[in-house]
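COMPLEX REQUEST
Ligand: 4'-deoxy-4'-aminopyridoxal-5'-phosphate
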Amino acid sequence: VHIPLDRQSPAPLYQQIASFIRQGIQSGHLAPELRLPSSRSLAKDLGVNRITVEAAYAELESEGLVFSKVGSGTYVLPPSQFSPLPKASPGAPWPLWQQEIQANGPDVNKSPDLRLHEKRHPDPISFASGVGDYHRFPVEDFRKILQSVMRRDGISALEYGEDSGYAPLRATVANVLSSQGLQVGSENILITAGSQQSLALVSQVLLKPGDAVLVEEPTYSGALNLFQALGLKIIGVPVDQRGLQVDSLEKLLQQVHPRLLYTIPNFQNPTGTCMSSPRRLQLISLADRYNLPILEDDYVGDLRYEGHALPSLKSLDPGGRVIYVSTFSKMLMPGLRVGFLAAEGPVYDRLVAYKRVNDLTTSNLIQRALEAYVTVGRYQVHLQRSCQVYRKRRDAMMDEIERLLPEGIQISQPQGGLFIWLRLPEGLRADELLPYAIEEGVAFAPGSNFFLGSEAGSAFMRLNFTAHPPETIHKGIKRLQKAIKRLEAGVNLEHAANGR
Ligand code: PMP
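STATUS: Structure written out below.
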């Protein structure tokens, strides 16, 4: 084959080769089934690298003009009966089914993009996060444990594990829960990829689109997003200093026949409140009378800085009414992606089956490492230290807020967990404050993230007090003070003023 090549041309050689053969095929000079010269011989004839010819053949193959048979060569294909696909190009329309997603799908992510924050300030401080201080992650301990587990268990640590989770980890979790008054056996524990997955599994098993689900209002935005994504009818029940207002529940139960109640009884996200004991008892009794499953999310129950632990709803459950969910994300590290749930009866078996169809199992290696970490007592030590450190940080943030922020701000001291929930004085809105705060170099989670309608949350903000040491908390609250002053004085935002 003689292919004229122009070595001065800006078109790469492989494209010149491909273009010549393409023309030959399209004009019929190169007939279907014809075997093209091997890349080695063509490269030799043309005085080019073999890779250049292979790239030309690959391009023709991606256009459906030739096909290659392993060990045999590259052949001309008969003209296709199908119309050729358009070439990928920027701005080309998506296929129709993708356009339908754009047009119809529920919009599940309503959190503002706080990454802007990082770009606008050289030294940003975020109180917006939903986990503890990542500088406190026991990285070195965990590295050693992982190594020793690999040495101890070898291949078996890298196989798929049991559907319900690594049996010794389930036993360990059951022991820990039993020591807290929640009597369960390992046969009632399912290990999941974090509590978010537990919430998703419970929803899949119990709910179908259009079903009504009761939530505390405000509540964890990840749960709201999940329930929205599943097409559920979400109904909010107000929360006060003693947690979910159980009194207002009975009427709702009669009116809307909800299929599930989702609650965070300990250090509620975002308000930080705990449900009182009488309300816990009342809730269990209502759930029993109205045949209502309860999903109890105990995401930071062990991070208590004072006062007595209250009985979990599950420990008050005479059997089968409550599904209890917890996680190692907040008390240890979120990237492990390990959580667990406790349930019994037919729902437990169904949850195990749904776990399997979702992701087969949670990482066997990480489960084994976690089991070793908890069993040697490291986890408990880490928790105790976290409680000491976080308690000081809570006190520091409470003090700074009272000292620096304007009168009229309302807060109450959480007895544990991660968050201070703050109500701004009359007339100030958290969503309007956020861009000023970001400009000053401090971020928070605006209240609207946690309510069903964004207006309801406009006066509130959630501050994570665990993420930074007291000096940084001081700096951050000072920045917030400045942002509030600028908002109150009606100063223009810099980026708005500059037209950025
Ligand atoms: N529940 C609550 C109340 C949370 O705050 C979070 C994390 N922000 C989760 C569940 C999910 O956590 P994970 O999946 O990491 O366990």
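REMARKS: The chain has 18 helices and 15 strands. The mean pLDDT is 93.
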